[in-house]
Design brief:
alpha/beta; two-stranded antiparallel ribbon; 19% strand
């Protein structure tokens, strides 16, 4: 793919999520585990997944409990792929903009939006919408790319090559403030990868080296567990307070 003509496609994301690269596999499986650990799904939960893509995280949700899942994505290609590969979920899958969610206030028990906000131009508006459609007393799980990460600047410079590509980096404290001022009580912050999150491959060379993946991933997991502010991606879990207003 020409980096100057970058496009999100189901093929791109499936290739990334299910790559043979051991670091991408680690990141993808860790994302699934963070979601399941954070949401503690129960049968009957009404779950909204914003930015469901081709269904990598969705599949883990469906297997964890008998939930009432609703998925939205703003990509026609993603929605069509999901409807063709998961026909039993098609009725609860729709094309929608995260900044204008077509749901009532407090319609869902749990709202999930990970790996998405960093690719939305108006991510503050989208965050308010996530909070609006969540029922008071229930959890929100979302993530941002971290401007404080040691690999933040190299990644941003690399992304300048990609026309039309949006990848925002935020200071975690600022995003936390946004959530709390909109009525979300933060009860968990998790880091998701440092070196293992953005492996670089040039020809036959890679950094970190694939041969060291087991050691690097183990170190990576321990490092972000102790100091989440070093992570490339930071996940926030919080509970919407009664009387909270996202507008």
């Amino acid at each position: 793919m020409n980096p100057a003509q970058f496009e999100w496609t189901p093929e791109f994301w499936q290739g990334w999520r299910e790559s043979a690269n051991p670091y991408r596999r680690y990141k993808s499986e860790r994302d699934r585990q963070l979601v399941l650990d954070s949401l503690a799904l129960r049968d009957g939960d009404r779950i909204l997944e914003v930015g469901c893509g081709y269904g990598w995280i969705s599949q883990a949700l469906w297997e964890a409990a008998k939930i009432e899942w609703t998925g939205v994505d703003d990509s026609v290609e993603m929605v069509e792929r999901m409807r063709s590969t998961h026909r039993d979920r098609a009725a609860r899958l729709m094309l929608a903009d995260a900044c204008r969610l077509p749901f009532r206030d407090g319609e869902f028990d749990k709202v999930l939006c990970t790996g998405v906000l960093m690719h939305i131009r108006h991510c503050t508006t989208a965050t308010r919408e996530l909070i609006r459609v969540l029922r008071p007393g229930d959890p929100l799980l979302c993530s941002i790319n971290n401007a404080l990460s040691p690999i933040s600047w190299p990644v941003r410079l690399w992304n300048l090559r990609k026309r039309g590509f949006v990848q925002k980096f935020q200071v975690p404290r600022s995003f936390r403030r946004l959530l709390t001022t909109r009525g979300v009580a933060i009860d968990g912050i998790r880091g998701d990868g440092i070196l293992a999150t953005a492996p670089v491959t040039i020809g036959s060379l890679s950094f970190p080296p694939a041969t060291l993946s087991r050691v690097v991933c183990k170190w990576d997991c321990r490092a972000v567990s102790h100091v989440p502010w070093l992570a490339h991606e930071v996940w926030f879990r919080g509970v919407k307070r009664n009387g909270a207003c996202a507008s």
